[in-house]
Amino acid sequence: MTDTLPMPSAPHVPVLLTEVLAAATPVEGAVVVDGTFGAGGYSRGFLDAGAACVLGIDRDPAAEPAGRALEAASGGRFRFLAGRFGDLEALLDAAGVPAVDVVAFDFGVSSMQLDQAARGFSFRNDGPLDMRMEQAGMTAADFVNTAEEHEIARIIWTYGEERASRRIARAITRARPFETTAALAEAVRSALPPRGRDQIDPATRSFQAIRIHVNDELGEILRGLVAAERRLKPGGRLAAVTFHSLEDRLVKRFIATRAGRTTNPSRHVVMAAPDARQAGSFAIRGTRPVVAGAAETDANPRSRSAKLRIARRTDAPAWDAPAVADDLFREAAR
Q: Which residues are annotated as a binding site for S-adenosyl-L-methionine?
């Protein structure tokens, strides 16, 4: 792609902003990383709350104009860092920032990306089958048009938790090549029973899975969490907002493991078991996430699935980095 697609001009409402700011208290005078800048809602919130310095990270070139504009208007208190939050440590090194007080994440695809048909994230409006957050590299069309049937089934099962993954993969390989979101959605629907009036579109899980794969979203989340653990000061706060179960389970397990707690095993991540000799690098209260209240969910439907998990960095050393598992075929090949 040669031209960077712009972000839409419609205002973006950051999810759980009040709760994220409360989790990061005290914000005044803090050095903050907004790991998922997007349209800048969290960054502006932190600046308004008195943060001394906010560093906004985003991999999407379409986010950079808003980031540069905020940088110019912030009086030196905001810096935009183009890149992946999984590379947070390298980005902070380049910016000359050794440690920070707060790291905040708003994981998943943004509403601005979903709303742009030309980005190919959604089938609500037909568009090119793209789905790339960075607008570079492998597209969704590249994947579904070239991958082996068993690989497509694995991805749809693993990242979409779709029980009919093998049937869908067969329908995709028979109908390809694809160029548009509408064509792929129709192929997926052809492999599944018609939905009821109150059910989600049958293509939803498959689109989610392909998007996560194309952008390595779970790998990025894990790398971002590890980087946050390594760069947060003792007493610093981690605030992570997720929007679907895979993201939330990964964040929950990471924090619980680092706090020395045990959780149900996840098939999406391999982590070292808690070791009595390894001091917890995070402290948490309870296990329930923070969710949006009725007023926010009424005003912003996207917030209904949002979950905020919070952890405080201790003064213990960071743990060895875990690794995302890649040997998940056995569960898809049932």
A: 40-42, 58, 85, 106, 113
